Structure formats: structure tokens, C-alpha cells
Amino acid sequence: MITNTQNDQGMETFADEHKQLERLLERIQATLMRGPGHFYSLDKLFAELVERIQKHFAHEEQGGYYNEVVEQWPRLAVRAEQLQHQHTELLADVESIHREVRKIPDSTIGCRAIQVHFNEFAERCRAHEASENGLIQEAYSRDVGAID
Ligand SMILES: [Fe+2]
Ligand SMILES: [Fe+2]
To answer: Which domain does 17 fall in, by range?
Structure first.
């Protein structure tokens, strides 16, 4: 059984990591908006993003977020599993864009290609995080209403 204190700490970390991730997505998008000449910075930012995403997903998977939802609110298990499955794809995508940054020329065309791929990735990543936030909110409101 998870205590309220454990839950509160877990949710704080969860919300904090989502905010940090969003800030990094915004920094990368702002750097891409500056046009060519910033691939060196982008390489570093993407390395940071890959590491941050790996750690964040590991915290969610091994730190108990998904297990808690499935254990305490079984009706939400399917949604929690779907979200967990998205991790593999999102991580593979960000790693692929990072490889692209290292491979393609730092030019207007190259920058535009990265921008298109990254904006599409960022949109899916934000949708994923928003769904997780929604799942947690729903879980707690169900808990209060004792529906499950
Ligand atoms: Fe996640
Ligand atoms: Fe998340």
C-alpha cells in the first residue's frame, strides 16, 4: 500500500520532471528557430534530452508510477499500459533525431529538416506527458469518489 506521503513525493518528482522536460523541448525549439550555425549546441542539447528522457521514463516505469496506477485503479490499467508502450517509440525517435544532428550538414536545409522532425516529436512527447497528467488527475478524482 502506498502512503499519502510517498504519493505526494512521487507526484512532486513526476510533475517536476515533466516541467524540466518541457523547458528542454522549448530550448531546443528556440535554438532551431535561430537557423543554421548551432548544430554544436544542438548536439549537446540532444544528448541532454536523450539522457533526461531515459531517466524520466525509467523513473515512471521502475519508480512505481505505472504500477501504482494499475494496482490502485485497475480500470485505468489499459491506458497506463498504452502510455508505457509509447516510451520505447519516443526514446527511439529522439535518439534518431540526435543521430541526424550529428550526420547532416549544418545548413538551412539541414536545420529545417531537424526542425520538422523535432517539432513532430515534441508534439507527441507533450501529448504523452499531458495524457499521463490526465491519468493521474482522473485516478485521484476516482479515488476521492471511490468509483474503483
Ligand atoms: Fe511517460
Ligand atoms: Fe512522463
So the answer is: 4-147
